[in-house]
Amino acid sequence: MPIPILNCDRNSRNQFDRFLAGAQEDLSSATERILPILEAVKSRGDKALIDYTEKFDGIKLTSITLDPQSIQTNIDPKIKESFLRAKANIEAFHEAQKRESWSKVIDGNRLGVKYTPIPSLSVYAPGGKALYPSSVLMGVIPAKIAGVGNIQLITPPQKDGLPEILIWLSQILGVSRIVTVGGAQGIAATAYGTESVPKSEFVVGPGNAYVAAAKSYLAGQGLIGIDSPAGPSEVCIIADSSANPKWVACDMLSQAEHGEDSSAILLTTDPSFANLVSEELEKAFVERPKRLEMKQNSIYKNSAILVFPNLEDCIWFSNELAPEHLEIQTKENDFVFSKIEHAGSVFLGPYSPVAMGDYISGTNHILPTARGSRIYSSLGVDTFLKRVTFQEVTKESLETLYPFVKLMSELEGLDEEHGTSVKVRTEDSI
């Protein structure tokens, strides 16, 4: 059962519409299931967290929060070196994103922007088989650079204790506390606050459908900020015959490794290259059988190779898909990139697999999915900054601009108070 190879053009909607629609994740059923959990945490606080943790994780909590600095860890020095190298690169990339407040004189008045950090953040870290300690780096570092002062890690408890890597990362990143509660109940605790868990203004980090549903629902209620609505992970690859088909197949499979609902879409103009990549995928299933069923479901059910008549059509489809990850492996990488309008993060050239951005290069791997890159951006320092605009109007400017305010406020029917609030300042002195 090889990966589907489809001949497409811009008019063959029946061929590729399902991939555009497939990028959306329906959280309605998950939302129905988590609503009672959210309400219970809101009304019963710590008691609900303890009860749900026992029900879902089989662990009776004696303490809901931990101070990471109080826990001894013993991390392999080579693992430490890897994460410290990643930390340094991520910090360097995000330091370049820092904002400076500014002001400018416009029509005689001093106007400007003051940047202020959000007060608090929760970073969600899944447990068990879905352990992603690299996401802790990605969530905490830009927030620290932005100036967020109160950061807590939310993670489900484990029967054999919390993973040491999460504790050590919390220590070196300056995380205030670890909240040992997972799932929708953990997200609810950050949104509402409980006796033990301080309320956060913002939450980021990957999780299952129930975590995603809780984040989206609570954000929709205006109770907490989130990075972006989450869906299955995805990669789109634009490649021509200059690319290595084995490398491209590996990149598609690295995405499939996230889960059977993940998708990997290859866009090419070369039918022969498409067949070579398909053959490499089949070889890989034999040579690397770990998580085989998961990878095959992802590749056979949610992925495809689309053959377009020209490179411009490949670019067009990529912009329609607005993928989480976009790899460009062509003879004209810079030209293709110049035409890209929507993507979470772009990986240019043959030596830039998504895995480099996932771990070590320095860019952030918390990215918009489900075509979200049409309106959302990757997690960064800006995510945790608020723009406060300000103005200081001079008496001379107020008097000069009042006639315009008078006409505009009269047009809107607000002249009695809006217009008057300006007029009195032209007549009276302080």
Automatic annotation (TrEMBL):
<dbReference type="GO" id="GO:0008270">
    <property type="term" value="F:zinc ion binding"/>
</dbReference>
<comment type="pathway">
    <text>Amino-acid biosynthesis; L-histidine biosynthesis; L-histidine from 5-phospho-alpha-D-ribose 1-diphosphate: step 9/9.</text>
</comment>
<keyword id="KW-0368">Histidine biosynthesis</keyword>
<dbReference type="InterPro" id="IPR001692">
    <property type="entry name" value="Histidinol_DH_CS"/>
</dbReference>
<keyword id="KW-0560">Oxidoreductase</keyword>
<comment type="similarity">
    <text>Belongs to the histidinol dehydrogenase family.</text>
</comment>
<feature type="binding site">
    <location>
        <position position="258"/>
    </location>
    <ligand>
        <name>Zn(2+)</name>
    </ligand>
</feature>
<keyword id="KW-0862">Zinc</keyword>
<feature type="binding site">
    <location>
        <position position="418"/>
    </location>
    <ligand>
        <name>Zn(2+)</name>
    </ligand>
</feature>
<dbReference type="InterPro" id="IPR016161">
    <property type="entry name" value="Ald_DH/histidinol_DH"/>
</dbReference>
<keyword id="KW-0479">Metal-binding</keyword>
<protein>
    <recommendedName>
        <fullName>Histidinol dehydrogenase</fullName>
        <ecNumber>1.1.1.23</ecNumber>
    </recommendedName>
</protein>
<dbReference type="GO" id="GO:0051287">
    <property type="term" value="F:NAD binding"/>
</dbReference>
<dbReference type="GO" id="GO:0004399">
    <property type="term" value="F:histidinol dehydrogenase activity"/>
</dbReference>
<feature type="binding site">
    <location>
        <position position="233"/>
    </location>
    <ligand>
        <name>substrate</name>
    </ligand>
</feature>
<feature type="binding site">
    <location>
        <position position="418"/>
    </location>
    <ligand>
        <name>substrate</name>
    </ligand>
</feature>
<feature type="binding site">
    <location>
        <position position="185"/>
    </location>
    <ligand>
        <name>NAD(+)</name>
    </ligand>
</feature>
<feature type="binding site">
    <location>
        <position position="255"/>
    </location>
    <ligand>
        <name>substrate</name>
    </ligand>
</feature>
<feature type="active site" description="Proton acceptor">
    <location>
        <position position="324"/>
    </location>
</feature>
<feature type="binding site">
    <location>
        <position position="255"/>
    </location>
    <ligand>
        <name>Zn(2+)</name>
    </ligand>
</feature>
<keyword id="KW-0028">Amino-acid biosynthesis</keyword>
<dbReference type="InterPro" id="IPR022695">
    <property type="entry name" value="Histidinol_DH_monofunct"/>
</dbReference>
<dbReference type="InterPro" id="IPR012131">
    <property type="entry name" value="Hstdl_DH"/>
</dbReference>
<dbReference type="GO" id="GO:0000105">
    <property type="term" value="P:L-histidine biosynthetic process"/>
</dbReference>
<feature type="binding site">
    <location>
        <position position="258"/>
    </location>
    <ligand>
        <name>substrate</name>
    </ligand>
</feature>
<feature type="binding site">
    <location>
        <position position="208"/>
    </location>
    <ligand>
        <name>NAD(+)</name>
    </ligand>
</feature>
<feature type="binding site">
    <location>
        <position position="358"/>
    </location>
    <ligand>
        <name>Zn(2+)</name>
    </ligand>
</feature>
<comment type="function">
    <text>Catalyzes the sequential NAD-dependent oxidations of L-histidinol to L-histidinaldehyde and then to L-histidine.</text>
</comment>
<dbReference type="GO" id="GO:0005829">
    <property type="term" value="C:cytosol"/>
</dbReference>
<feature type="binding site">
    <location>
        <position position="124"/>
    </location>
    <ligand>
        <name>NAD(+)</name>
    </ligand>
</feature>
<keyword id="KW-0520">NAD</keyword>
<feature type="binding site">
    <location>
        <position position="358"/>
    </location>
    <ligand>
        <name>substrate</name>
    </ligand>
</feature>
<feature type="binding site">
    <location>
        <position position="325"/>
    </location>
    <ligand>
        <name>substrate</name>
    </ligand>
</feature>
<feature type="active site" description="Proton acceptor">
    <location>
        <position position="325"/>
    </location>
</feature>
<dbReference type="Pfam" id="PF00815">
    <property type="entry name" value="Histidinol_dh"/>
</dbReference>
<feature type="binding site">
    <location>
        <position position="412"/>
    </location>
    <ligand>
        <name>substrate</name>
    </ligand>
</feature>
